[in-house]
Design goal:
single chain; 5 helices; 83% helix; elongated
């Protein structure tokens, strides 16, 4: 019976009755809201992934598509945008930025190789100095991008952990609200 109740809480919404105590009524409303957010998160997570993986989209197009998936702003006073989707889209945005930085690093490495090949073919000392200067500038940019990628990687991991913890906490809240509702039904 315990498993049936746990399964039931994800299948149906709790009916809010006029006769419900204020605590039970609030617990049912919160439970229904959390269930809706979990369901919406699971349905739309793949859409957010697809938006950020599409290399053809400009940043403006990405924002437009995200607005379609997540919503532009609070839909109404009693219905907020899904906080899980918002946090997940921020994580995906950071991952996309890291991917772009890695692409830029690869291009910079190729430029350095080109300059080094060019350097070996040059005769004039002035041109050699200019080429060496370009190589040094690119190496500095490369180091900066590497550090930024590392920092962003740590931030992404932290945000993923926080999102997981938040979702686990919500799961605990769902269980708590279910227990409150069941206790009230037994009275």
């Amino acid at each position: 019976m315990k498993y049936v109740l746990n399964y039931q809480k994800f299948l149906e919404k709790f009916e809010i009755l006029d006769s419900d105590e204020p605590d039970v009524k609030m617990a049912k409303e919160k439970m229904n809201s959390l269930q809706d957010q979990f369901t919406e998160f699971n349905q739309k997570k793949a859409s957010i992934d697809d938006i950020y993986k599409d290399e053809k989209l400009t940043p403006e197009q990405v924002e437009e598509k995200l607005k379609q998936v997540i919503g532009l702003e609070e839909e109404s006073p009693d219905r907020d945008r899904n906080p899980f989707l918002i946090e997940y889209s921020n994580i995906c945005r950071l991952e996309k930025e890291v991917s772009n930085l890695q692409d830029q690093r690869t291009k910079d490495k190729l430029k350095i190789q080109e300059f080094q090949e060019e350097l070996s073919l040059l005769d004039k000392e002035e041109t050699k100095l200019l080429t060496k200067s370009n190589i040094n500038d690119l190496n500095t940019k490369l180091a900066e991008k590497s550090k930024k990628i590392l920092d962003m990687g740590k931030e992404i991991q932290q945000k993923k952990t926080e999102l997981g913890q938040k979702m686990n906490q919500v799961q605990k809240d769902i269980n708590e609200y279910t227990k409150k509702i069941q206790d009230e039904k037994q009275k």
